[in-house]
Amino acid sequence: MNPLDFDPQTLTAAATTGDGAAMHRLAVLNAMGLGVRQDWRAALELLARSAASGFAPAREEMQLLDPVDLARWLTPPPPERLSVSPAILAIPGFVPSEVCDWLRARAEALTEPALVYDRATGEGRREGVRTNAAAVFELQRMSVTLALVRERIARAAGLPVPGLEWTQVLHYSVGQTFDWHVDWLDPALPGYADDLARRGQRIATCLVYLNDDFEGGETAFEAGDLRHRGRKGDALLWANTLPNGAIDQATRHAGLPPTSGEKWVLSQWLRGRAPTA
User: Fold this and answer.
1) In sequence order, which residues have a C-beta less than 8 Å from that of residue 188 and are 6 or more positions away?
2) What is residue 91's three-state secondary structure?
3) Following DSSP, what letter does each residue of 218-258 receive, concatenated?
4) Model confidence over 127-145: pLDDT tens digits?
5) What is the reported pLDDT for 122?
6) Where are the beta strands (DSSP E) in 107-160?
7) What is the distance in angstroms between the CA of the first residue and the CA of the last residue of the chain?
8) Pairing of strands 133-137, 202-209
């Protein structure tokens, strides 16, 4: 089977022959609602069948998630408000510790120098303002477990799952930083025009702290001089736009450098709709 093939009909035909990899891909598509109607129960059934067929990645996920409490996953914990303006929420205990460890382990082999948006072209490029590393989980790297985390984030933010960009896991060694920046895309810059037209604005950002055995490394906001560092499994969620849809100029923030140890954090940008072609 083509390793890049995510056509539901092709995968369904392969799954009927007992192909565990095809079942796993179908499980991901069902979990995300890509090419098929989103169906979490079908996704989990396909994951179990894939694991039973001997497909190692599915067996690993089943061991990680079993027993799967779907209702709990789909009901995020209550948030704690850290700031009204900008709107910033902390959500303790957002992701189980063992899932944090699993996501970190998957990201460790995939990290590359993190990029920033080029203001002129909208393309990613390296820049001194950002010295950390990132692992990007596009469709070929997606799993049912990560789809559960993404669903939980979308529900906590009140935004649609199809509006989520591909998830990143960020790594900061001692001294590495993502200096002061904003996550919204400036509509006044021509380089962002196509992206905004196709996908809309980045309405919110969510971070999930995958470890806490480091010093320093706070997420800092200029507004109110807020410094925050969550415990392992906690989430930090903030709005990049105001209730009227305008960008929130007060959301300038930075990922401060760890002074000892290393920091791992899941980063999720959320838009308000699915991208158009």
Assistant:
1) none
2) strand
3) -EEETGGGEEE-PPTT-EEEEESB-TTS-B-GGG-EEEPPE
4) 788 999 999 999 999 999 9
5) 76
6) 112-113, 116-117, 124-125, 133-137
7) 26
8) unpaired
pTM over cut 0.90: yes
| Residue 77 DSSP SS3 | coil
| CATH classification (class only), 80-271 | mainly beta
Q: How far apart are CA 261 and CA 3, in angstroms?
A: 36
User: What mean pLDDT is predicted for residues 79-88?
Assistant: 98
Which residues fall within 8 angstroms of residue 6, CB to CB, at 6 or more apart?
A: 25, 29, 34, 35, 139
pLDDT, one tens digit per residue, over 50-81 is: 999 999 999 999 999 989 999 999 999 999 99
Q: How far is CA 135 from CA 31, 168, 265, in A?
A: 21, 5, 11
Structural domain spans, the chain: 8-68, 80-271
What per-residue confidence (pLDDT) applies to 4?
A: 57
Residue type, 134: A
pLDDT beyond 80 at 120? no
CA distance readout (Å), 260 to 164, 211, 215, 227: 32, 13, 5, 17
Q: Residue 248's beta-bridge partner residues?
A: none
CA distance 184 to 254: 14
- pLDDT at position 127 is 78
What ranges in 5-109 are assigned the alpha helix state H?
8-15, 20-32, 40-52, 56-65, 70-73, 97-108
- Identify the CA nearest to 169 among candidates 105, 92, 76, 236: 105
Give mean pLDDT, residues 21-43: 97
Q: How does the average pLDDT of the chain come out, rounded? A: 95
Q: Helix, strand, coil shares of the chain as percentages rounded to 5?
A: 35, 25, 40
